[in-house]
Amino acid sequence: MRYDDSPPQPETAPAPGADRRRFARRSALAVAAAVIAPTTLAGWVLVQVGTGAGADDARPPRIAAPAAMGTGTPTATPTSTASPTATASASSSPSTGPSASGGPAPSPGATSPLAGKTVVIDPGHNTGNFDHSREINQQVDIGTARKECDTTGTTTRAGYKEADFTLDVSRRLRTLLEGRGLKVVFTHEADRAWGPCITERARIGNEANADAVVSVHADGVSEGSRGYHVILPAKVKGGAADTAAIVGPSRTLGERIAANFARATGSGPANYLGGGTGLVVRDDLGGLNLSTRPKVFVECGNMRDSKDAALLTSPQWRQKAAQGIADGIVGFLGG
What we know:
The chain is an alpha/beta fold. The protein contains eight helices and ten strands.
């Protein structure tokens, strides 16, 4: 049906060879489209990869930090709003370690990168320290200075001791790591009256020839100061202290733990130090200064803040904390 008033026009026969020319042009366009389409798609895929889509924990995150700590770009980090009963957030890829839900992980075979590896776990402080002030206040040499042998650690306002917290998280951590086939050594298990001194804690890791050493702690600062942070060794040299060989691998270990801790617990990096990176470098800790093995301290939260204390006193949250630390260690060791 026609929709205008113009008279119908007689059809004319195509000129000789016109069909062949039209077919040639269409064939050329089809070939061009076939070439352009996959090239365009490949470019889109490269843009997605280049901008971090689908990133996993196969490499250390590039976390922004002060000049003395690093020059990476910041990564998105959860805010410190997790509740004790909140569901654990998604873990890193299976190749980086156990799932954040604590599900069973396959035992490493003979060719596993975890085979034969040793991890030393250092539960911070000791509940007996409160009754042994004379012993723990004796001065020890940390290479660059002299410090107390050990301290009591902090408590929540309700009296829950940091030493109880660190031992509980450390035991949970040991179970997770041993489940991956790692050998785990403790510096103590509250099986001694006090201590050990910070010098002995460092020596245990060194003598075990540990592939990674993690000291578990919780902070004790003012109300409103919240979040986790991982303490990395500074480059120091003096007396028995020489950290040149461990600064690099310790940073890698700390970055892995920080990223996985945030994923597993939902907590954010400390809002009172570290510039929002969750990483802090210190040169005044004997446990780091005297270590010859890759080592970090993990401050899981602030026991003196009511919101953080509610998390730290929750067994469910402590399991998440142990899972995050375990995932970071396993990722560092290549598991």
